[in-house]
Amino acid sequence: IMLHSTLALSLLLIAVSSNLAMAIKKEKRAPQTLSRGWGDDITWVQTYEEGLYQAKKSNKPLMVIHHLEDCQYCQALKKAFAENEEIQEMAQNNFVMLNLMHETTDKNLSPDGQYVPRIMFVDPSLTVRADITGRYSNRLYTYEPQDMPFLIENMKKALRLIQTEL
């Protein structure tokens, strides 16, 4: 009986510790608050400066998403962005990704004003691509949830430009 209860206790301890390990592992993943809901599997940089550095180092374009928590258009765009598998996959593999809830000091990132949401691309030579725009002439870098195919095209364009220009 003693052996039996020791065995049962050991199994219980193993079960508890593996659950604990899983809980800790989940906790460890928590710093992914940088995604702010735009895609938890994407590695996000924290600052614009870090984004520029990583873009140059990795030779990948930097994608900058300006948004605000209390903006319904941003929330709708975020949902469409996070649910689009093609966008998520490209963002994970081919881009340096940054989402910001404040403006940067780089005026090149607000060529037509400081509105949200807006998505801009910076190539590895650190040039802000004012030539990669959305569908709207009044807010050149804004996208709406139904514009995901258009954003995908622009992501591909950003990748193509690197191959042809740099």
From TrEMBL:
Domain of life of the organism in this record? Eukaryota
Q: What is the lineage of its organism?
A: Eukaryota, Metazoa, Chordata, Craniata, Vertebrata
- Give the molecular function GO annotations: dystroglycan binding
What is the designated name of this protein?
Anterior gradient protein 3
Q: Which family does it belong to?
A: Belongs to the AGR family.
Keyword Metal-binding in the entry? The reply is: no
Give start-end of the signal peptide: 1-23
InterPro entries xref list: AGR/TXD, Thioredoxin-like_sf
tRNA processing among keywords: no
For this UniProt record, the keywords arranged alphabetically read as follows: Signal
Name the Pfam families for this protein.
Answer: Thioredoxin_7
Positions of transmembrane segments: none
Taken from the UniProt entry, a GO cellular component term is: endoplasmic reticulum
